[in-house]
Design a protein that fits this description.
This protein folds into two domains: 36 residues; 35 residues, no CATH class. 64% of the residues lie in helices and 0% in strands. It is built from four helices and no strands.
């Protein structure tokens, strides 16, 4: 006998029209069924969305470039330590 392979079914009542429209729109944008979009949204809400470290790093580099500020690791450590005093 297999355990843990059965999926539960939930009926959600009284979904506000705007929430329904938003979910349908997101499902279409993400190429998912409405059901899969709801499951994904619930999973992300309960477990957190996956973090794209490479994208975050690239964004940080882009911001740093626009600011024109470049600190060494030693300067960063010193500034952090000053704030802890």
């Amino acid at each position: 006998m297999l355990y843990g392979c059965f999926m539960s079914t939930i009926t959600v009542k009284n979904i506000p029209p705007e929430v329904h429209r938003t979910l349908k729109s997101r499902a279409r944008t993400n190429g998912r069924s409405l059901n899969r979009e709801i499951i994904t949204t619930l999973e992300n809400s309960l477990h957190g969305a996956p973090i794209d470290a490479a994208a975050i790093g690239e964004h940080a580099r882009a911001v740093r470039e626009t600011m024109g500020v470049y600190l060494t690791q030693g300067e960063l450590t010193s500034l952090k330590n000053e704030g802890r005093g």
